[in-house]
Design goal:
Radius of gyration: 19 Å
GO molecular function: ATP binding; phosphoenolpyruvate carboxykinase (ATP) activity
Number of domains: 2
InterPro entries: PEP_carboxykinase_ATP, PEP_carboxykinase_C, PEPCK_ATP_CS
Shape: globular
Helix content: 25-40%
Distance between the termini: 42 Å
Number of strands: 20
GO biological process, one term: gluconeogenesis
CATH architecture of the largest domain: Alpha-Beta Complex
CATH class of the largest domain: Alpha Beta
Order of helices and strands: HEEHEEEEHEEEEEEEHEEHEEEHEEHHH
Strand content: 15-25%
């Protein structure tokens, strides 16, 4: 039912109302600034939008109109594998009477859940009313248009930067591409990360050509002078296969804090070759050596170049199906291999 309604709205809202439907989470700062998080399962949409310093508008399905942003749903659907009060206090605290846990293992006598137990599946979940998040915004809408648009990815190859600032054409290219890695626990039968692409981070629900949604997004970003970012919550130092580690959540949150404070928009940037992304040289509370994958890589220069080119080619191959409808500038905004 949830996804069926979502698909209908991907047609109805853009065609009949000139409103952009979004597979995204959204939150709002104390000054009324709104941030959208686009991303597939396992990239951090729910986790990162549940920020104690910002009001949660919603974690998965929204619309962006001329009058702001509103949530389509009345609840959240969070992954719980490895969940702890220390790592994700807002989500942990939302699990109480009235919430529904799926696929979890628990002690039948004490009813205590073991969130680290993946015996049944790694895709353990909890559904809960949005008001169970203490700082949820009720009603779930904002009259303000977003100030920051964040495209989330989880790159298992470790070659995409933790954060990059995107221009209009890059935003459209990466939005249409919808790259991430299928993570263990988010898809049946997936136990290791695999590269995947889902246009507009919502391919199963799209009723129109991805370029239609991408142009609407880019026009809205331009009209409201928003910043667009590519945020990689995946591997740093090396890829999954080379023994790299996933970017610590504390660094990802520090990057978001710098985005919301406006600091990250004003630091010095450098070009990251092949993908031609603008990467910050510094970010408050994040080690500078992590920001550029070419400098953070620990598995040898040759393997780094191989992985960068390999991922770049995957992007180009995937985008061929959209080139007939995309502008030349958008096509050129992708990696050069």
């Amino acid at each position: 039912m949830k996804k069926g309604v979502f698909t209908v709205l991907f047609y109805e809202m853009p065609i009949k109302h000139n409103v952009l439907t979004l597979h995204s989470s959204a939150n709002e700062g104390k000054n009324g600034d709104v941030t959208l998080f686009f991303g597939l399962s396992g990239t951090g949409k729910t986790t990162l939008s549940a920020d104690p310093n910002r009001a949660l508008i919603g974690d998965d399905e929204h619309c962006w109109s001329d009058n702001g942003v509103f949530n389509i749903e009345g609840g959240c659907y969070a992954k719980t594998i490895g969940l702890s009060a220390e790592k994700e206090p807002d989500i942990f605290g939302a699990i109480r009477y009235g919430s529904v846990l799926e696929n979890v293992v628990f002690d039948p006598l004490t009813r205590e859940v073991d969130y680290d137990d993946a015996t049944l599946t790694e895709n353990t979940r909890c559904a809960y009313p949005i008001e169970y998040i203490s700082n949820a915004k009720i009603p779930c809408l904002s009259p303000n248009s977003p100030s920051n648009i964040i495209l989330l990815t989880c790159d298992a190859r470790g070659v995409l930067p933790p954060i990059s600032k995107l221009d209009r054409n890059q935003t459209m290219f990466h939005f249409i591409s919808g790259y991430t890695s299928k993570m263990a626990g988010t898809e049946d039968g997936v136990t290791e990360p695999q590269a995947t692409f889902s246009s507009c981070f919502a391919q199963p629900f799209l009723a129109l050509h991805p370029m239609k949604y991408a142009k609407m997004l880019a026009d809205k970003i331009e009209t409201h002078k928003a910043n667009a970012w590519l945020l990689n919550t995946g591997w740093v130092g090396a890829g999954f296969a080379q023994g790299g580690k996933r970017c610590p959540l504390k660094y990802t949150r520090a990057i978001l804090d710098a985005i919301h404070s406006g600091e990250l928009a004003n630091v010095e940037y450098e070009n990251y070759e092949v993908f031609n992304l603008q990467v910050p040289k510094t970010c408050p509370n994040v080690p500078s050596e992590l920001l550029n994958p070419s400098k953070a890589w620990t598995a040898g220069e040759d393997s780094f170049k191989t992985e960068v080119v390999k991922l770049g080619k995957l992007f180009r191959e995937n985008f061929t199906k959209y080139e007939s409808e995309a502008t030349e500038d958008v096509v050129k905004a992708g990696p050069v291999v």
